[in-house]
Design brief:
The complex is a heterodimer of chains A (83) and B (362). In chain A, 30% of the residues lie in helices and 37% in strands. Chain A is of the alpha+beta class. Chain A has a five-stranded antiparallel sheet with strand order 3-2-1-4-5, with no helix packed on it. Chain B has helices spanning 10-23, 35-43, 46-49, 63-66, 69-79, 102-107, 118-127, 144-157, 171-181, 193-199, 206-211, 222-238, 257-266, 296-299, 315-320, 343-346, 351-358, and strands at residues 28-34, 54-61, 85-88, 111-114, 133-137, 162-166, 188-191, 215-217, 243-245, 267-274, 278-287. The chains are: A alpha+beta (83), B alpha/beta (362).
């Protein structure tokens, strides 16, 4: 019940929007996220957007994780004999 | 970027697991509050991947499961009123109350209808102006704003046949109740990602401040959860408990102010009765007197009679995290998803359903 799915906003009319969830379009309410814009991703819970996904934060998280993964790969390779 | 696949990459999971293993020196046990997390943890087999020093324990984060039998009976009594249309989310249908489930009531002629959103229930009220439409308000802080929005909308439209039976519950007070009871030793809390999207990560500050253990708010993809576990292990090892927000693409410290304002406008905090935890102070939401005409508990004062708990069912203890599903004598024997006896086996978010569906720890 607390699941929410990242959904792309296609168009906005007043407090509702058309949004694409896994290729399916449906109408959602923007009553809880009036700041949402077309082209942004929102998390949708039971027909309501509950937050606008912060793309910059997502990129920064992934950048940190990738940096860590690269470091891990390098260490793993360095530890293996014969390399 | 679709914000899903990126957070399922095996390479990222592997390095996080290596970090956790390298950092973890002493046994720790973290509780994931949220049923969504429980299912993700089981679905991706995360328990088995973690080093033996790190264990996870499921908490009471399934709204259907924590709904007390007395409240369920109230909903059933409502559904049996002639003329009433009871609108509910699908996962409430099969939960057994003292005398049958909503599904059984429907089979006997009650008009119980599944909705995806509170907006669907409003539409039902518009289309059936001469019949009372009652929405069964079950859910945590993620759902409450959507119900508040529906009530405000109903008032604006002058919809007089729409009411809500508010059984909403609040997660931080329940977490506090579990920590206060001290029945299960916990070294940290995995904070619910979507509840915290609404309430804000500040709502969890009491965990490190008052209980001296860390809290990491997590998203729902496997990499998100491992990142939260890594943060918890790090804080537990360093002895510096704090609130870590590892779901910053959705969670902000102050939460969703629009949603919180709506909830505050329509609801006031009251004591709620939880299955497993019993009455917990300030852990529920009651409709304010200004909106009393939308309160189904006042519109339909029903007395459904004494409650009966299913014999042998250990749902309550499972919800408190004191036992795990295989410790229940009914689990897998008489209680299965096809014939559930307790709510933890019914709901898609229930702990027993997750164990049954994805298998157990070896």
């Amino acid at each position: 019940m607390c699941l929410a799915i990242p959904t792309l906003i296609i168009s906005i009319q007043g407090t509702t929007a058309r949004a694409a969830i896994g290729g399916v379009e449906r109408t959602i309410s923007l009553a809880l996220t009036p700041e949402a814009q077309v082209g942004e991703y929102v998390l949708v819970h039971t027909g309501f957007a509950i937050s606008v996904v912060d793309e910059e934060e997502a990129r920064e998280t992934l950048r940190l994780l990738e940096e860590m993964a690269t470091l891990y790969d390098e260490e793993t390779l360095a530890d293996e004999p014969g390399r | 970027m679709r914000y899903i696949d990126e957070f399922r990459r095996p390479q990222l999971a592997r390095s996080l697991l290596a970090t956790i293993e390298a950092r973890s020196t002493r046994p720790v046990r973290f509780m994931e509050f949220c049923g969504g997390h429980t299912h993700a943890i089981f679905r991706y087999g995360l328990r088995q991947m973690l080093p033996p020093t790190v264990s996870l324990r499921s908490g009471p984060g399934c709204p259907v499961c924590v709904t007390a039998n007395s409240d369920l009976d109230q909903a059933l009594a409502l559904a049996r009123q002639s003329d009433v249309i009871l609108a509910t989310f699908g996962d409430m249908m099969r939960v057994p109350g003292s005398r049958g489930s909503l599904q059984m009531a429907k089979a006997k002629g009650a008009d119980v209808r599944i909705v995806y959103s509170t907006l669907d229930a409003l539409e039902m009220a518009r289309l059936n102006p001469h019949r009372p439409v009652v929405f069964l308000g079950v859910g945590f802080e993620t759902t409450a704003p959507t119900v508040a929005a529906a009530i405000v909308q109903a008032e604006a439209e002058g919809l007089e046949n729409f009411t809500v039976l508010s059984l909403h519950k609040l997660t931080p007070p329940a977490t506090r109740a579990i920590l206060d009871a001290g029945e299960v030793r916990l070294s940290g809390i995995i904070g619910p990602g979507h509840v915290t999207t609404v309430v804000g990560s500040k709502a969890w500050e009491f965990v490190p401040h008052e209980y001296a253990i860390p809290c990491a708010v997590a998203g729902f993809e496997p990499v998100d959860i491992l990142r939260a576990v890594a943060a918890l292990v790090d804080m537990a090892e360093s002895g510096r408990p704090a609130v870590a927000n590892t779901y910053s693409r959705s969670v902000r410290p102050e939460g969703n102010r629009t949603a919180l304002q709506l909830v505050d406008q329509v609801f006031e905090v009251n004591e709620a009765n939880w299955r497993g935890l019993g009455p917990v102070p300030d852990s529920g939401l009651r409709i304010r007197s200004e909106y009393a005409r939308f309160d189904a508990a006042l519109t339909f004062p029903l007395h459904p009679g004494p409650t009966r708990e299913p014999k042998g069912c250990r749902c309550g203890e499972v919800l408190r995290g004191t036992v795990e599903p295989p410790d229940c004598p009914l689990y897998r024997r008489t209680c299965t998803p096809a014939r559930p006896i307790g709510p933890c086996m019914v709901s898609a978010e229930g702990v027993c359903a997750a164990w049954f569906r994805y298998g157990e720890r070896p």
